[in-house]
Amino acid sequence: MENSKPKKSVVERIGDFFAVAGLLAFLVPALAAFGIGAPLTWVQRGLGAFGESGALLLYFIGAYLIAALFGTVERILPVLSGLMTGLLLFAGAFEVPYLTGIRSALFRFAPFQEAAPALFAGALAVIVGNLMGRSPKTKAIPGLLVPFVSGIALLIVLAAWSPFTKSTLNLDASSVERAIQSISGTLGKEYVNPEVEKAVRQVMEEKNKTLAEKEQALKELQERLERTEADKKALERSLKDSDQLSKQLEAAKKALDEMKGRLESQVPLVQGGRYDQAVQPADPLVRDFAVKAASAAPGPWDNPQGSRIPNDAGAHQLVLIHGAISRNWKYVSDPAVSWTDYTSPAKRTLALGLAGDCDDYAALMASCIIAVGGRARIVHGVKGNQGHAWAEVWIGQGAMAERVLSSVARFTGRNPGQLAVSVDAATDNRWLVLDWELGRYSFPARTITIAWTSD
């Protein structure tokens, strides 16, 4: 008689189908562990949050549970042990829906700070449990312990051996992708770029931080990027405001082009907040640029000279200087670095072609105002985890300050009452705001401090 295997029933075939489907769901994050991230990206684009690595692993667990129920399982205990162990290991390193508390508890332990070891250890536990469940000879105690022990053993070995290179998945890909997607969803697809991804990965790879600390760091990163977007929009508005000055600003544009060959971009950055080093009104090239920017309004800044309160010519000059800088400014921000860490000296900012973030802008603005005879200061504003820096120019006190504002309003086509002014309560000294837009605050600060004031 010819030996032949018994045909599988329809129910068993359904079980096999779910087992294959589960393996396919597992294969996507498994490929990402070896640096093949395209399938994970495609699935995430197609399924959104349901395509995250944690969700795919939940599908894997669910599929193997269904496969066990429909398949030829003889012992349910090893199957359940494998599934529970796999779920625990997956949830310790990935954002598994409804199980984020497990990740918060386990993420601080070294084996769970890299996702790949937990990924394969969890899969091994599930498969071992499923295979043991198919054998009628499996005893209760081994069936309960072997899937768990095999998964934990592989986790420890892979975490110690670390066969996954730096370029592969040594962090939770779902968390990185989720953070980047959140940023792009809030701010636009232009924020899905190498600099932002690098900053996100830098946060996630910090092994000395807890999960809560990393989530807070990602929140602060997104807030900095939101601040960047707001700054760029303010600059765009400033560009429109200065259109009427375009002919008067040609001298500044020409001066900037002529300076390119004379400037060195290798001037080092200074420590954040060291405006005594970053503000450089006496530097010949900085002063040359300021004078050229203000050249359409010839005459002394103040009258009497030495008072440093802008007269009509001085008011016109500060408008021109602000327009020359804001109109040509290229906003550049390293998302991995806060503006409080480093500041670009004015000479270096010129060398870069008027590029940088808020404190670089403030340092150059103050330098140019002082270079033509004015008095300036730099202010820091803080709201929650966000911060901003801007320059202000001194316009005197009382009626004198009102006259300066009237002149500035005339040259900008604005109403004097629309120009933002800071007032020192003790002295009545008034300071016109020279933020991205002249006379307009771009940042709703709750706490304001004077970071630096010229003599």
From TrEMBL:
Membrane among keywords: yes
Domain Transglutaminase-like: 317-397
Keyword Membrane included in the entry's annotation: yes
Keywords, alphabetical: Coiled coil, Membrane, Transmembrane, Transmembrane helix
Name the record gives this protein: Transglutaminase domain-containing protein
Pfam families in alphabetical order: Transglut_core
Ranges in coiled-coil conformation: 200-266
InterPro entries given in the database record: Papain-like_cys_pep_sf, Transglutaminase-like
Transmembrane spans: 56-73, 80-100, 115-132, 144-164
Source superkingdom: Bacteria
